[in-house]
Every structure is written in C-alpha cells, then in structure tokens.
Amino acid sequence: MADTIAYAETRSGSLRPVAGEVVAAARKLADQMSGQVVAVVVGGPGSSDAAADLARFGADRILVAESESLDLYQPDATVEILDSAAKAVVPGAILFPASAQGKDLSARFAARLHVALGSEVTEITVEDGAPVITRPMYGGKAYGRFRFKKSPALISIRPNVFPATVDPREGAIESLPPVEVVPRTRVVAIESSERTALDVREAPVVVAGGRGLQDASNWRLLEDLVEALGDDATLGASRAVVDAGWRPHSEQVGQTGKVVSPNLYFAVGISGAIQHLAGMRTASVIVAVNKDAEAPIFGVANYGVVGDLFEVLPRLTEEIRATRGSAR
Amino acid sequence: MRSIVCIKRVPDSEARLRVSPDGKTIDASGVKYIMNPYDEYALEEALRLKDQSGEGTVTAITVGPDDARETLRSALAMGADDGVLLRSDGSMDGVAVARALADEIATREYDLVLFGKQAIDDDNMQVPAMVAQMLALPCATVVVDLEIEGGVATAKREIEGGHEIVEFDLPGVIAAQKGLNDPRYPSLKGIMAAKRKPMEEKDIALAEPTIELLGLTPPPARPEPQIVGEGPDAVPELVRRLREEAKVL
Ligand SMILES: Cc1cc2nc3c(=O)[nH]c(=O)nc-3n(C[C@H](O)[C@H](O)[C@H](O)COP(=O)(O)OP(=O)(O)OC[C@H]3O[C@@H](n4cnc5c(N)ncnc54)[C@H](O)[C@@H]3O)c2cc1C
Ligand SMILES: Nc1ncnc2c1ncn2[C@@H]1O[C@H](COP(=O)(O)O)[C@@H](O)[C@H]1O
To answer: Which residue among A72, A84, A123, B72 has the highest number of C-beta atoms inside a 10 angstrom radius?
Structure first.
C-alpha cells in the first residue's frame, strides 16, 4: 500500500489545464497500489479555492501552500514544501506535469531525494506493486520501459496524453505550513505572449505551418482555420519558418522545439523531416496538406490531401465552419 | 567569466536508429555522432560571455566513452580552452550522470555552469537542475536569453504561453534552449588550435543506477496512411472522415 502525490501546477492562483491530467493519472496509479491520492498545490492567492476542483479527478486529500510570495514559481521554496508533504505522506510515487515548471521542479526534487526521475512519460503500469513507466527516447525513435529501484518513483507525464478522467473523491483541503527559505533562484516576473491562445503543448488541436506557406503574411490562412476550429485550437510551426523569423520559437514543433500530442494535428506545407516528426508523431490524428505526393509527412498522416495549400486551406476553413456551425 | 560547459556526444538527429535484437540497446552501427545540439547553444553562450568580459576560461566536460573525446575536440575547435573526459560507459540514469558531473565541478572554480536543456538521446531533461541542486547552486532551465551584470544573472526561460524572468547571483547554472544564440562553426584555425589545447582524461565509476531499463521498443506504429484526394475537392470528404471516422471534429 502506497500513496501517490500529484503535483498540481498553478499560475496566478488558477490551476493549469494539465493539473487534472496529473491527478487523474495519480488516481489510476493509486488504485492499483491500494493507496490514496494526495494532491499538492503551491501558489498565490486563489490557489486554495482553485484546488478544490481536484477532488473531481480523484484527490483524496489536497495539501495547499498558498501565499503572496508563491504567486510566481519559486523553485527553492517549492522543493521545501514538497519535501514536507513527502515526509508527511511517505508516497510510493510522485507525479508531475512534464511542463516547464514540472520538469524543473521534478529534477530538483529527484536530486534532493537521490531517486530516479522518468520524464515525459506516456504510460504508467503497476508491476509487483510498483510503477513501471514507458517514455519516448531518441526523439521518439524508441520507447523505453523502466522500473524504479528506489521509492518514491518520480514521474513527469506528457501533457495531453493521460485523460483527465472524472472520478470524484472527498478531496479535503488542508493547508501546508509556510516554509522559510532564502531563495537562491528568484523568479521575478512572467511575460505572457501577446496572444492569449493556448500553448502548443497544451492544445487539443494544433494547426502547424511550414515553408510551404511562402511568407509570414500568409499565416492569416492558418489563423482563420484555428478560429474555425474553436477555442481548443492553436498554431504550431516547423523549424524552417521559425528560423526564417516568420514565427516565434515558442510555436516550433519538433526535436529542437516542442513535443506535442494533440487529438488533431494539421501539418500544412510541412515536408515531414525526421526532426519534425519527433515532435508530433504521437498526435492521435494527423492531417497533412502538401502539394508533393512524395512528401514524408504523408507517411505518418492518418489523412492526406495532395494539393496547393492556398486552394485547400480556404475551403477547409469554410467546411469546418459549416460543420461546427451545424453541430452547435 | 569562468564557465564550465557540460556537453554530451549523441547520435545525429537525422540518424535512423533501430532497437538491437537484445531489446535493451540501440543499434548504433553506421550512425554518425554529434555534439548534442542544445549543448552547442550552451557552449556558444559561454564563449560569448568570455569575449564580452575580455577574460576568463571555458572548460568543456563530458561523461562518456573514449569516443566522446571527439566531441570535446569539437568544443575546443569552437573555442573552449580545455576539455575534461570523465571516462565511463555513461548511463540512462540522470541522477548518476548528474552526480559524476557535480563531483567534478565541485573541484573547480567557476562563475557559471552551462548545460543544454535536453540530451537528444535519453531525452531526460533533468541533469542540469539535478547538478544545481546537488551543488546548492541557483539554476534557470530552458533559457532563451541571458544577461550578466555585476555578478547577477538575469535569464529568460521559456514556459507555456510566455516567459519567466529569473534572477540569481553567480555562481549558478543555466540550461540552454534553442533561440539563446546562433552557435558558430569551428574555423579552420580553431580546428588546428584545438589539437594543442589541454585535454584531461580520467576513469570514473558512475553511481549505481536508481532506475532499471526493462526494454526498448520501436515507437508504436501509426495507422495506415490514407490519401483522401487531390486539391480542394477532397476537402468535404476529409471533413466527413474527421467527423465520422476519427470523431475529432
Ligand atoms: C539538429 C536539428 C534539429 C532540428 N529540429 C527541428 C525541429 O524541432 N522542428 C522542425 O520542424 N524541424 C527541425 N529541423 C529541421 C528539419 O530538418 C527540416 O529542415 C524542417 O522541418 C523543414 O521545415 P518545412 O517542412 O517547413 O520546410 P520544407 O522541408 O522546405 O518543406 C516545405 C513543404 O511545403 C510543401 N509545399 C510548398 N509549397 C506548397 C503549396 N503551395 N501547397 C502545399 N504544399 C506546399 C513542399 O512540398 C514541402 O514538402 C532540425 C534539423 C536539425 C539538423
Ligand atoms: N554524459 C554527459 N556528459 C556531459 N553532460 C551531460 C551528459 N548527459 C547530460 N549532460 C548535460 O545535461 C544536459 C541535459 O541532459 P539530459 O538531462 O540527459 O536530457 C545536456 O544537454 C548536457 O549539457
């Protein structure tokens, strides 16, 4: 019997979209290890109220450290808070989101405990009462299965892979005592992108454009498609167009960009170089639009349309608008 | 500025990798190896910081087999002053590698330790923050911009939907993300000079791994690709299949 800690990330007093996924994955794991799910929430004012929602995804207990000074991610304090929670709970596993914050924190904490960390995990099973993980390696060219030799098992889960299944539990909220630390690393501000759109790692639908678009100004065509697809959709890009300065690096998908696993991925005017595939191979459904029938992207696409994107895209946007309009 | 840059030798991102029949290793025959691309950003940043401050050193350190010497040579050719090879077979366990690097770094004097944000072979994304934690150093990961003034580093780190601004007093650790700079190519002069630069080699024993590899498998196969049609006329059929077959619209 071992409990599982789920680190539920917040920003500005709200839960991040991935928090539900982490708690739901912890629920499944805890059920197989006959333990409880203890969610840990660290954040600024509002975090306690927001944290209550985690009961829905299966949190038995919710430990909250809320203070003005934790509104921005403070790694040193968060390591201490997590340490106090882990001492109180004695978990068999600690789950984090494989987000910028989750990866930073989990690595620090693994070093603190001198235990292993499995990053960007896509599957968790239980064998002989202990977690076994599967994670993509070599840019997704191979998947490794690992067993932990020490407890707790630290695991960061890839966003959008584990469903945020609803499985309510009591979720009693308890507050964690404040910790006193002199921070070595000081996060002083967050600069948000001008666009309020979802991050490409978190969006269920990604519309990605490549060099086939010919010019930055043609992104209007992709923006129209994103708009037609609704609030779940956001933009992605190939490295070629990021290097050309047409799109920001934050949108780059691939080996030297972001690894995404949306439900639906549109690759428009993208050839499908091996480094690009490294970033989007695990999407559930891939649609490719390319004028070259031999383009490697068609080798991974569930559905391909061979044709000039400047003709195909406006039609696609129009059809999707019509479909979604009638569906509502 | 005295910088230490941790670099790793990895298979080229273009390489077609196969799982060996033993199911536990990658068949690396005929594969070209390169310096981990993110480590090039780290090294470039260290070289620029040295140039800007007009003084200091850049030391490249790697944990790896004999062949990793080549990767150190490339670092020296780009402009690093000296190289250190901590000879071992390496490990997929980030904690063991971080421990070895931390032990070596602890014996040296430095202002900044630079890493890539991720090694493109094990994709662990953990060694930099682990080393920082082990050495009780401040650390910023996924850094796309770095300013150093008066012993204080200000780093911009990439987060979902924006950036975090992180400050710390030197000495400290950063892990470089693409966008930090444009790494230089080694010049012919640099390649020649690299042959005469000091390279230290020592055998090390990595700590017992905290994780055990049960097996490697090829990625799950994708469904058989379908070409729906050509040109805009294929669009209604595409949308129908997305809606009715794939149920994603
Ligand atoms: C170390 C390393 C790391 C890398 N990391 C990444 C990474 O993270 N992400 C990434 O994406 N790449 C990465 N790359 C680069 C990668 O190798 C490719 O160069 C890049 O992905 C190509 O981008 P692209 O598909 O937009 O451009 P291209 O390869 O030029 O493809 C453009 C495509 O558009 C099609 N096209 C042109 N006009 C039209 C039209 N009118 N209608 C329809 N189709 C059209 C063409 O047929 C072609 O297939 C990396 C490379 C290296 C060496
Ligand atoms: N064997 C190694 N030798 C030297 N540096 C390494 C080694 N492994 C990882 N690193 C450093 O740690 C970074 C992140 O690696 P990883 O955590 O393995 O993804 C790399 O970009 C390197 O800077």
So the answer is: B72
